[in-house]
Amino acid sequence: MLVLQATILIFVAITATAVVFTRQPVRQVVGLSFYGIILGLLFFILQAPDVALSQITIGAVALPLMFMLSLAKIRRDAEERKRREESEHRREAA
Asked: Quick one: CA dihedral 58, 63, 66, 72, positive or negative?
C-alpha cells in the first residue's frame, strides 16, 4: 500500500509540474483535469472516498469546464472586436 501511495504522489507531482510549465491555456486546462483525477485517486487510496468524489467532481470536471467556457468566450469576444474594428476601418476608408 505504501508503494502505491508513493507512486500516486509522484504522479501528482508530475501532473502539477506539467500544468505549471505548460504555456497554452487549453493544454493547461486539460492538464488540470488530469491533475484533478490523479488527486482524486490519491484521496481514494488514502481512504477518503467522500473527498475523492468531491475532488473528481470539482477538480476534474467543473473547474476545467468553467475555464474552457471562459476561454471560448474570451476568444469569441476578441474575434467579434476584431471584425468590428475591420468594418469601422472599411467605412472610414470609403
From this structure: negative
Separation CA 47–CA 52 (nearest Å):
9
Name which of 21, 53, 18 is nearest 39 in CA terms.
Answer: 53
Residue 84 CB neighbours (<10 A): 10
What is the pTM assigned to this prediction?
Answer: 0.81
Q: Distance (Å, rounded) from C-alpha 37 to C-alpha 60?
A: 6
Report the Cα–Cα distance between both ends of the chain, in Å, rounded.
Answer: 74
pLDDT (tens digit, 0 to 9) for every residue of the chain, 94 residues total? 899 999 999 999 999 999 999 999 999 999 999 999 999 999 999 999 999 999 999 999 999 999 999 999 999 999 999 999 988 888 887 6
